[in-house]
Specification:
Shape: globular
Number of helices: 18
Structural class: alpha+beta
Radius of gyration: 22 Å
Number of strands: 22
Strand order of the largest sheet: 18-19-17-16-20-21-22
Oligomer: single chain
Length: 484
């Protein structure tokens, strides 16, 4: 019975989970939690990557003290990367996807239609392709000194093992892969002027990256554990854990970002998918995660941070209680508008948006949170309709995964807005998917289908039946007008 160490790093925090598989269930415990705080220096927003690695080493030490482990895997957010030079060191500190360097991404030298026809990736200014093209124009010297480009989880695996591998699901977020071939689109990359010598061979989820280096083992008194290239994009790990045996399903991996979509065998690259701005990202066993990035609970998190700065320490549960008491459908926002992307005073921006669009201005935290939740639910409905239009499949059930499952209000609103049953859980979907792929690599679970059943047996799920009516239909019509 293998002991599994899983690191799950999100955009604002990370944790280490120690797990084992016994009697058909995964049992896990959190042994270390840490913040993930970007640092802005001279106008550039960076990830504090070395601090994150310090916390990974701290997690390893705590796992050793808790009895040790045999396998370790890391999942993180997508698109961001580190550049490693010939000396094995970082060429520069990794830059945050919310940095302003891609504000001019629409000036990209290759037509958007041509890019989508190959990569099938949602056009967003945070994508790796645009980050690198910006570096071509402004920091080409750094790219020329780079031996390996490693996406964030691949970079952390490299720090642990000394081996640089590029895992498929995380690479697929870059907008640099041919979606059909599941490999680098070298022609597109060259057209953007991006050097190709730094791009490594792509490996599939479940590949053993290497073992903990002698240096790490000596420093931390750690075992010579195997490091697994899991489905290392956090959404790919979450989708791997969806507790269903159905072939066709909808999901929302709901956290800072809400990733809404379905799992397909082949990419959808037609004009309709491009018009809806859906992505074809990599999944387990060569599947395609046909999905769309929606702003997610970032708006709630950042609003709470603003109120804390103003001296009001509201908890998330307290904010949800206030939202329940607020007037329904007073105002709505398109959560994906550019003004909501960057950190700052989100409540003030929401108020300005509502005033600009001729709606009543929300007053106080309860009305702000209600506005966000209702707008998210309506945007989810729009996303479901887009998926169904592209795939020709009707879906009755939506699986909500991740931190969003903790908001009963948002889950119920999603059911009401869409008219679909919501199956909420697991809230630890990403880390469960991380663990499941490690167990497959260890030979303890035979397949992803078996893994999904194990997840279903290992956690409690909650269902929400739609209770919406004409008021939601009216709100959706108003929401569609706002989107236009």
């Amino acid at each position: 019975m293998s002991k599994i160490l899983a690191f799950d790093l999100g955009a604002s925090s990370g944790r280490a989970m120690l797990a084992e598989y016994k009697d058909g269930k995964i049992r896990m415990q959190e042994i270390h939690r840490f913040t993930n705080d970007p640092v802005t220096v001279n106008g550039t927003m960076y990830w504090d990557t070395l601090r994150l690695f310090y916390d990974i080493k701290t997690g390893i030490t705590k796992a050793v003290n808790a009895g040790g482990f045999d396998y370790v895997g890391i999942d993180t957010w997508g698109v961001d990367f580190g550049l490693v030079g010939e000396d094995g060191q970082l060429v520069t500190n990794p830059v945050h996807y919310r940095d302003k360097r891609t504000d001019d991404y629409l000036d990209f030298p290759v037509p958007a239609g041509e890019v989508y026809a190959s990569t099938g990736i949602q056009q967003m200014q945070i994508n790796t392709l645009y980050q690198l093209e910006s570096m071509v124009r402004n920091h080409m010297d750094q790219l020329e000194r780079t031996k390996m480009l490693l996406f964030t989880p691949d970079l952390l695996n490299y720090f642990l093992t000394g081996v640089g591998k590029t895992e498929y699901t995380i690479a697929s977020t870059s907008q640099m892969l041919d979606a059909r071939a599941r490999y680098w689109d070298m022609e597109l990359i060259k057209k953007a002027g991006i050097p190709t010598q730094m791009l490594g061979k792509i490996v599939q989820p479940g590949t053993i990256c290497g073992t903990l280096s002698d240096e790490i083992c000596e420093e931390l008194s750690a075992p010579k554990a195997k490091v697994v290239c899991i489905a290392s994009h956090d959404t790919a790990s979450a989708v791997a854990s969806i507790p269903t045996q159905a072939e066709d399903f909808l999901y929302i991996s709901c956290g800072t970002w809400a990733l809404l979509g379905t799992e397909l065998k082949q990419p959808v690259l037609d004009e309709k998918a491009q018009e809806y701005n859906f992505a074809n990202e990599g999944g387990i066993n060569g599947t395609i995660r046909f999905l769309k990035n929606i702003m997610g609970t970032w708006l709630i998190q950042e609003s709470r941070r603003q109120w804390i700065r103003e001296g009001n320490e509201y908890g998330f549960g307290e904010l949800e209680s206030m939202a329940k008491q607020a007037q329904p459908f007073k105002c709505l926002i398109d959560v994906d508008r550019p003004e909501f992307i960057k950190p700052g005073n989100i409540p003030r921006r929401i108020a300005a948006y509502c005033e600009r669009t001729g709606q009543p201005v929300p007053q106080g935290p309860g009305e702000i949170i209600r506005c966000i939740d209702e707008s998210l639910a309506l945007k989810f409905r729009y996303g479901f309709e887009c998926v169904e239009d592209c795939t020709g499949i009707g879906y009755d059930v939506v699986h909500i995964l991740g931190g969003g499952t903790k908001s009963a209000l948002l889950c119920q609103m999603t059911a009401d807005a869409s008219g679909k049953k919501v199956a909420a859980g697991p809230d630890e979907a990403t880390v469960l998917g991380n663990i499941a792929v490690q167990l497959i690599a260890a030979g303890e679970i035979a397949s992803i289908a078996e893994a999904r059943q194990v997840v279903a047996d290992s956690c409690e799920l909650k269902e929400y039946a739609p209770q919406g009516g004409s008021e939601w239909e009216k709100a959706y019509a108003n929401f569609r007008k706002i989107m236009e």
